[in-house]
Amino acid sequence: MTVAPDPVMVTRADRAARAVFDELEPDVRRYSRTFPVVFNRARGAELCTEHGRRFVDMVAGAGALNYGHNNIYIKRRVLEYINADGIVNGLDLYTVAKREFLKTFNDIVLRPRGLDFKVQVCGLTAADAVEAALSLARKATGRRGVIAFPGDMAYPQGPSTAVIEHLVDRDIPAAILVEPVDVAGGVHEAPAEWLAGVRMLADRFGILLIFDETRTGSGRTGPFFGFEHSGVRPDIVILADSVGGYGMPLSLLLFRRDLAVWQDGEHAGALRGNQLAFVAATAACELWDDPKFRTDLVVASRRAERFRSELDGRGVPVRGRGMLIGIDLGHPDRAEWLQRYAFDRDVLVDRCGGVVLATPPLCIDVARIDRGLSVLRDGLEFVDVEGA
């Protein structure tokens, strides 16, 4: 049987505080309807309501706040830039902020991984970068088709490379687009051997391999890029969400130098010069050279791994790597019940279908990650009983 979700715990003051939202916003909202309180302040892995209720945030902007809310180091850099009257919108002009970001990103992220990529600023969202990636692949190859995979595909049961090869034999596409870890579809990781087979097939037919690192980039699965676990290198990488460092909207396209086939002004836009995002992204890159940041990430990741191992030992399907946890409860009602159970105990987690999703900040402190995982562990006991 499935579990009917209990009403979430909210007060009369909470209902009054959100009245203006209920009156003026459409019901298309999801997160506000899931967490029906009004938030006011945040720091690290903690979100506070205007009435003083404190939550452990294991949603982190749907994984777009890998460095936490109001990261002190990044915030100081952004404020210094604003106080110095730094440019805010620089279009695609040469600016100091953009130069510092490009150099830092290359020195700390790309070069140590042997990635000799061009870096194109695409705009504010992952959709901007996906559009640019497909346009670039089509221009570079002279072909139109793209092979992509649905967001709910479990890779081990997904199409074999033989099936892909059959499609390619009929019409060679410009690109194959893959998420190394499909987060939104329930945390499904593409097996390394499958990715290696796709890489070989792409090389054989002259197809460009695109990895979408929107949700897995910037350290979500441990290393900076999710594809590093497989050892397979793409031709083009889509990077967005947490790359902006401070929740600043920023999307990037990384690609092999020989694919730089754009004509002057062929792919441009007014919102591709967000200088505050460059400043925040530069500071975020620098954190990867900070021993304390790396130590905090290792400690938190070990706790997450211990939690995954514990659930696996109990027969609860759980997936993920690093600071990415997907608990598969098999039915949306059960996942919603656990999400609401956690909310009533001041812990925020996400869900997709029947999967409860925890994506806390990479630098979450020990006390908060232990508290969050403890609430989920306790809630699973009730879900197991009710769902038996």
Q: Could you please describe the fold and organization of this structure?
A:
- The chain has a six-stranded mixed beta sheet. Strands 1-2-3-14 form a four-stranded mixed beta sheet. A four-stranded antiparallel beta sheet has the order 12-13-16-15.
- Strand 15 and strand 16 form a beta hairpin.
- The protein contains 13 helices and 16 strands.
- It has helices at 12-17, 19-24, 31-34, 60-63, 72-83, 96-110, 126-141, 161-170, 192-205, 275-287, 291-313, 332-344, 366-387, and strands at 39-43, 46-49, 54-57, 117-123, 146-147, 175-178, 181-182, 188-189, 208-212, 236-239, 251-256, 318-319, 325-328, 347-348, 350-352, 355-358.
- Helix 8 runs parallel beside helix 9.
- With 388 residues, the protein is of the alpha/beta class.
- The model has no long low-confidence stretch (mean pLDDT 91).
Main traits of this protein?
388 residues; alpha/beta; 6-stranded mixed beta sheet; 4-stranded mixed beta sheet; 41% helix
User: Tally of extended strands?
Assistant: 16
Query: What's the overall geometry?
Result: globular
Largest sheet: 6 strands, mixed
**SS-based class:** alpha/beta
Mean pLDDT: 91
Uncertain regions spanning at least 5 consecutive residues: none
Q: Please give the radius of gyration in angstroms.
A: 22 Å
Order of helices and strands: HHHEEEHHHEHEHEEEHEEEHHEEHEEEH
How many individual helices?
13
Helix fraction bin: 40-55%
Which percent range describes the beta-strand content?
Answer: 15-25%
Distance between the termini: 7 Å
Main-sheet strand order equals: 4-11-10-9-6-5
